[in-house]
Amino acid sequence: MKYERIPLGPLQTNGYIIYKDREGLIVDPGGEADFLLGRIKELNIKVHAVLLTHAHFDHIGALEKVREELQCPVYLHEAENEWLENTKLNGSGVFPGIEEISCKKAENLWTEEGEKEIGPFAFYLFETPGHSPGSVTYYFLHENLAFSGDVLFRGGVGRTDLTGGSQEVLLDSIHEKLLLLPDETEILNGHGPETTIGEEKETNPFINGFGW
Question: How far apart are CA 157 and CA 152, in angstroms?
């Protein structure tokens, strides 16, 4: 399995194309739909689904055009079922200078953690709220890859001052879910460069004071 990290949209949010054997998934199409679709065409892959780590505006900017063009379903946690349509909840109607984004609801809602399969792709879904109530992490066990959205960054953690955010819940998610993954697990997050669980245990000032 291969992946490409593509910074997209006004905040250069990391979107990802995951693919193998001409089949693929998209994680967090944050903007620049034509560019993203062009890359999909270059790779000549069939996209089975769009996976959202959460529904903040900078992660969904290209969602509607991508969904329509590729005719693929969207997956989102049920806790944010209303967020794609609601500009206040997804944040696009809150910040000055940001274009309001309203999308149709997701075709599929995650309701519980566990092993999931979409097309040829198998992964484990972790519920990792705190940055937002429906934040999830997509963990590809055999590849040691975790697509974590805005939960854990290199040297940082997600902000918790937006709707439904909680620093206590966020840190619980990180310690009870992500830090239990193998140290070599790559964390592919929503902003900035990738990191590993081991590196964050050693160097992240927000989490490394807990005896790791």
Answer: 5
